[in-house]
């Protein structure tokens, strides 16, 4: 059995001088919510279009649901759902009629279509409002309906390009909750793009971080964090330059900042804080409290971006 929903190898696509996707090697496992994270213009949408066979690659291999793309892209499009820039909804039709229309396109028999429409709209809290014209709906409701449309024919994999773009924080949170529930229930794999780090942290099992078409890292959030610096904060007194110098001479310490009663220490890797506390005390510092914090994904993201920037120069 193929455990990967998506696999690419050395995938490259250029537009004139721009390398929109640059030797991208990516693995998305079946059943996971994979977040494809990167700033504007980093190649996220181009990647989705390549995966769906809507664009031809210059080089590299793609396999989606075990099927080679672009060779058998039509098959992939049958077995996947997508929410790209346009929601693909008819504003003058009701929500139910929108889904019914797409159900007919997918040649779903009437009974199955009706049952599926009910199931999806009910789980998104939209069933009571199914007969209203979509044009009267809020952006968040429309976006949920667009997700229902993508899931209608029970695809094994869905692509969501910036699903919460333009939603206020409450609508975005509600969409994330519904999406998580639906995905769990249906066992569908989700490939979603976002430049919102907090969103990726809340929603995704694994993420890939892309910048200028290149994959900087991929893995679970815990894995990505493990590679990153840990931070230690000591509260106390007498954090003199003497103390700072002593800490800086330790191989485990990447950076030290003394700020009045706070001493901030960035560690190169996860390590026991006790020897560092001892060192501070030996050099005359008084430590009252010690806090440690894992890097947030935001820090991981920024660090990776900075490293990439440093290599580029
Ligand atoms: N059809 C095209 N013709 C020319 N350049 C393109 C085309 N599509 C994408 N690009 C360029 O490729 C790069 C990647 O664009 P892409 O839309 O994939 O980024 P993105 O990460 O999805 O950005 P955003 O978050 O803003 O949607 C950009 O520099 C973009 O200008």
UniProtKB/TrEMBL annotation:
This is ABC transporter. It comes from the Bacteria. Signal peptide: none annotated. Keywords: ATP-binding, Nucleotide-binding, Transport. Belongs to the ABC transporter superfamily. Pfam families: ABC_tran. InterPro entries: AAA+_ATPase (IPR003593), ABC_transporter-like_ATP-bd (IPR003439), P-loop_NTPase (IPR027417). Residues 6-237 form the ABC transporter domain. GO terms for molecular function: ATP binding; ATP hydrolysis activity.
């Amino acid at each position: 059995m193929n455990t990967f929903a998506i696999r690419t190898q050395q995938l490259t696509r250029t537009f004139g001088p721009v390398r929109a996707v640059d030797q991208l090697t990516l693995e998305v496992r079946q059943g996971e919510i994979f977040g494809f994270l990167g700033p504007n213009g980093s190649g996220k949408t181009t990647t989705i279009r390549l995966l769906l066979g809507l664009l031809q690659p210059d080089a590299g291999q793609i396999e989606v649901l075990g099927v080679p793309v672009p060779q058998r892209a039509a098959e992939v499009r049958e077995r996947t759902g997508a929410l790209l820039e346009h929601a693909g909804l008819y504003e003058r039709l009701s929500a139910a009629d929108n889904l019914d229309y797409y159900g007919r396109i997918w040649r779903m028999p009437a009974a199955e279509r009706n049952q599926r429409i009910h199931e999806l709209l009910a789980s998104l809290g939209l069933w009571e409002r199914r007969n209203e014209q979509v044009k009267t709906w809020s952006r968040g409701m429309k976006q949920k309906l667009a997700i229902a449309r993508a899931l209608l024919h029970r695809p094994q994999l869905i692509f969501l390009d910036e699903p919460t773009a333009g939603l206020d924080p409450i609508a975005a949170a509600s969409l994330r909750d519904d999406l998580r529930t639906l995905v769990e229930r249906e066992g569908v794999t989700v490939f979603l793009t976002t430049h919102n780090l907090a969103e990726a942290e809340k929603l995704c099992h694994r993420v890939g971080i892309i910048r200028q078409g290149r994959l900087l890292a991929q893995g679970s959030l815990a894995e990505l964090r493990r590679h990153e610096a840990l931070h230690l904060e000591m509260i106390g007194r007498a954090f003199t330059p003497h103390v700072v110098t002593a800490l800086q001479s330790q191989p485990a310490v990447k950076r030290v900042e003394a700020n009045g009663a706070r001493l901030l220490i960035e560690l190169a890797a996860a390590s026991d804080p006790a020897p560092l506390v001892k060192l501070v005390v030996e050099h005359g510092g008084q430590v009252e409290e010690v806090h440690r914090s894992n890097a947030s994904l935001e820090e991981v993201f920024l660090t990776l971006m900075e490293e990439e920037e440093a290599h580029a120069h």
